[in-house]
């Protein structure tokens, strides 16, 4: 059993309520019935802060947007991953068949089984996959949880180094200490707090500025470094990072060189190969606003591609008819 990580003392978290700007509004039948507030930062190609909304210097939990850093730590610890396997190590996968098959192979390569995973049993993240999974009579499993690729890589590097596999999620474990170091180096700032993510792994809080800086550092890293290897694998195999019906996949496929990763509670980070980058957090965790806010942020970043409109479309239905939308408000 792993010990339960405690939240460490931290600087004040991202403020809530009317102190933050509205990033998205919910419009039904021409009537604005709701708002989503948050903070955002856009970095110029040279890494300087070009635009901010809200308080992007306040620490947030990036949730799964931390996964590229976790994957880089696994490489630094000696695990030789590349291609689809490395992309899956940085994934919040949809639970499609090709995702689960590769997780099983990654585990088997190191004498491990899905029973070694300490992810919580879950359904596939993608709603269509979850519906098909249940219709086939399947039940929640550890391997089906969207972080199982990351956990498979963590277990594999523990097996490689002779580290204790039973406590691989403990913040004091050598692997998690290395993750902590990589996050701080990439963000260019100290971790503000350590908590527990939904998958059970330690979770490091940084600012949105630090998160954007981290993604920028991965795409600008020297070839052959752990950071660049992770960025290259994610960009070459985005369907393994997300799934066949996910915005991260669409963006990395259709805007070559882009690195994109969402996180739970409406966090998103993106970096372009020239160093432009963005990160935002919707305070109420409203994932339904993620696409419209991302699309508008990409426009601010100078991305002009059909996929931006596809990502930004978030219609509201009345019965079976479209009667409104969730739209960016900045």
Helix content: 25-40%
Number of helices: 12
What string gives the helices and strands in order? EEEEHHHHHHEEHHHHEEEHHEE
Based on helices, strands and strand pairing, what is the structural class?
Answer: alpha+beta
Bulk shape: globular
Q: Mean pLDDT, nearest integer?
A: 95
Radius of gyration based on Cα positions: 19 Å
Q: How far is the first residue's CA from the last residue's CA?
A: 46 Å
* Major sheet description: 8 strands, antiparallel
Beta-strand percent range: 15-25%
Taking pLDDT < 50 over at least 5 consecutive residues as the criterion, the unreliable ranges are 1-14
Beta-strand segment tally: 11
What do these coordinates show?
With 330 residues, the protein is an alpha+beta fold. Helices cover 36% and strands 20% of the residues. The protein has helices at residues 67-76, 83-89, 97-108, 127-135, 148-161, 174-187, 208-219, 226-236, 238-241, 247-254, 290-301, 306-312; strands at 22-28, 31-43, 49-53, 59-60, 193-196, 202-207, 259-263, 267-271, 277-282, 315-318, 321-328. The strands form two sheets. Strands 1, 2, 3, 7, 8, 9, 10 and 11 form an eight-stranded antiparallel beta sheet that branches. A hairpin with a 2-residue loop joins strand 10 (315-318) and strand 11 (321-328). Helix 2 (83-89) packs across helix 8 and helix 10 packs antiparallel against helix 12 (306-312). It is globular and about 60 Å long. It starts with 21 loop residues before the first strand and ends with a strand. The model is unreliable at 1-14 (pLDDT under 50).
């Amino acid at each position: 059993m792993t010990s339960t990580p405690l939240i460490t003392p931290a600087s004040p978290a991202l403020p809530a309520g009317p102190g933050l700007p509205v990033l998205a509004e919910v419009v039904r039948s021409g009537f604005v019935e709701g708002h989503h507030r948050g903070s955002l930062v856009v970095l110029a190609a040279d890494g300087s802060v070009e635009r901010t909304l809200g308080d992007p210097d306040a620490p947030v939990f990036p949730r799964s947007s931390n996964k590229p850093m976790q994957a880089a730590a696994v490489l630094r610890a000696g695990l030789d991953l590349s291609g689809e396997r490395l992309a899956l190590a940085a994934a919040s996968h949809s639970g499609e068949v090709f995702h689960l098959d590769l997780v099983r192979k990654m585990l088997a390569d190191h004498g491990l089984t899905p029973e070694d995973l300490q992810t919580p049993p879950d359904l596939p993240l993608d709603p269509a996959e979850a519906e098909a999974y249940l219709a086939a009579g399947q039940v929640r499993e550890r391997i089906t949880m969207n972080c199982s690729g990351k956990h498979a890589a963590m277990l594999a590097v523990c097996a490689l180094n002779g580290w204790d596999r039973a406590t691989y999620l403990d913040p004091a474990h050598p692997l998690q200490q290395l993750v902590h170091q990589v996050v701080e180096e990439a963000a260019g700032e100290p971790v503000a707090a350590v908590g527990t993510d939904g998958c059970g792994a330690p979770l490091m809080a940084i600012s949105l500025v630090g998160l954007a800086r981290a993604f920028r550092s991965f795409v600008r890293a020297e070839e052959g470094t752990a950071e660049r290897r992770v960025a290259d694998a994610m960009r070459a195999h985005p369907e393994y990072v997300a799934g066949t019906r996910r915005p991260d996949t669409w963006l990395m496929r259709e805007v070559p060189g882009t690195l994109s990763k969402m996180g739970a509670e409406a966090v998103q980070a993106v970096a372009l190969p020239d160093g432009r980058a963005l990160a935002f957090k919707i305070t109420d965790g409203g994932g339904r606003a993620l696409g419209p806010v991302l699309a508008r942020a990409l426009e601010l970043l100078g991305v002009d591609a059909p996929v931006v409109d596809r990502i930004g479309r978030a219609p509201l239905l009345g019965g079976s008819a479209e009667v409104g939308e969730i739209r960016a408000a900045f």
